[in-house]
Amino acid sequence: MIYKTIFKLTFPVALGVGGVIALYLYLDESTWMKLWPLMTAYFFPPLGKESVIPAGIAMGLHPALIALSIAFMDMVASLFVVWNYDFIKKIPFLGKYVEKIESLGKRGSKRYRWVRALGFIGVILFVMIPFQGSGGVVGSILGRLIGLRACATWLAVSSGAILGCMLLAYFANFIKMIVVKNLMLGIFVVVLMVLIFLLYKVAKETFKGGDLLRSKARER
Questions:
Q1: How far is Cα 101 from Cα 190, in angstroms, rounded to an integer?
Q2: What residue numbers bound the domain in which 186 lies?
Q3: What is the mean pLDDT of residues 154-170?
């Protein structure tokens, strides 16, 4: 039993370190010097895939390389969480960190009720869609909260991470190509995307405010 626990604790870490070493050995120095700062930045909040991946594309990295590198980090983080979820909550430092992330996952499960309804597919979509504050860790906790098994949770998070990162990377690359070929058209597309995002944020806050008012009305 103790060996199984040790394996589950150490294998994801070894896998992550091994993956980074493999990238270092495989990539040329110029590409590696562009990639590793972005991977490091993604590891520490608040930067997410929606900012790190476009930055990598702007720096000239291949879409598949930056996408799969970031997705790999989500997959490793997810594997560590789903294998050691109950155990690491008992460790003082790690336990507090997991409980903090768990609270984010609980808020996410209340906010995105559709995830619970869709189950496995819901977790995939949750991890896929950027601008949610979702990722490998929160997606894994959300999977646990809605009752998915560890293996199913990891597969859902991994699928969502790969699909989401690849779509985002190639979309960012498409925008970059437009800007290179037609600067004005590229600027127009970027401005349009920013406006759509701002409208989305306003609509979301309005909807949240409406829910709060309805909740207070019911309490009265």
A1: 32
A2: 182-220
A3: 94
Supply the pTM of this predicted model. 0.79
Q: Is the same domain home to 138 and 218? A: no
Q: Which amino acid type is present at position 179?
A: V
Residue that wins the pLDDT comparison between 152 and 212: 152
pLDDT bin (cut points 50, 70, 90) of residue 208 is low
Strand positions, DSSP E, the chain: none
Mean pLDDT, rounded, of the chain:
81
Do 156 and 139 form a contact (C-beta atoms < 8 A)?
A: yes
Rg of the chain in Å (alpha carbons)? 19
186 shares a domain with 169:
no
Indicate if 159 and 211 belong to the same structural domain. no
Residues 208 and 145 in one domain: no
Residues 13, 98: Cα–Cα separation, whole Å: 17
DSSP 111-151: H-HHHHHHTHHHHHHHHHSSSSS--HHHHHHHHHHTT--HH
Same-domain check for residues 89 and 33:
yes
User: What sign results for the dihedral spanned by CA atoms 56, 100, 113, 71?
Assistant: positive
Residues 151 and 105: their CA atoms lie apart, in Å, by 18
Domain shared by 108 and 17, yes or no: yes
**How far apart are alpha carbons 90 and 114 in whole angstroms?**
31
**Domain co-membership, 125 together with 48:** yes
> Structurally, how many domains does the chain consist of?
2
How is residue 24 written in tokens? Answer: 């270092």
Q: How far apart are the first and last CA of the chain?
A: 53
Looking at the structure, do residues 114 and 34 belong to the same domain, yes or no? yes
